[in-house]
Specification:
Strand order of the largest sheet: 1-5-13-14-15
Shape: elongated
Distance between the termini: 24 Å
Helix content: 25-40%
Number of strands: 15
Structural class: alpha+beta
Radius of gyration: 23 Å
Length: 257
Amino acid sequence: MRSLYKYCPVYDFNNLDKEYAIINALNNQVTFSTRGNFNDLFDSKIDFRVPNKLELKKVYSMLKGSHKRDFKEIFLGENGKRNFTDFKRRLNQTFDSYLFFCLADKPDNNLMWSHYANSHKGFCLEWDATRINAEPVTYQSKIAKFDLLDVSKMQFGLLSNDEVGQHIWKALKVKLDEWKYEGEHRVQFGNGMKHLVQKETDKFLIVSYEPEWIKSIIFGCRMDKRAIKYLDRNLPNHIERKYAKERSSTIEIIPTN
């Protein structure tokens, strides 16, 4: 996949310089959000699975020395259930700290224009997918499961940090089937991107990007001409201008030349 798309709303056509999506587009920046900011109640929500006694005993049998003694005291003793409850709470807090930037796989999605671009009054940015590490979301009938035992195994050297990290990232890319129309791809904020942060809060980051990563802008079917002219005048010349046009039952993306 060579392109991915970000649908952006515009609301106040009399104050375009104050519109959040336009400010981001003109300043070559995007918003990375935590899962608590997502509009879907179940997006990235995790079903943490507590291991049964048989699973715990199997891990216990794989350990040696002080690890064996510590594991038994923490997870097989009287406080085992309470420790896993606390474990779950702390893991939820960790999952809440992850930040994502979301993109779609198509520029002519009527529902995406309706839901994320203010009913076709906004615009859509075409991203060069070869410049970013975006991975597709998994759509399924139930929220993701995550085995708490995996983190325990990591703490006692039976699983690597990378393996558990992959399990976490996989769980955080799950959405329910009803959202499948979005064709979402997700970019996770990593330590290597810290130098790009422009603004930071508890729930989101404003992160800069290279202007060349944007291939085109697509103006919505109902976008006000004032906004089109404003963006056309202020965006770099290398960004191709396109228009979303309403056809009988579809949306067609039309280049300007």
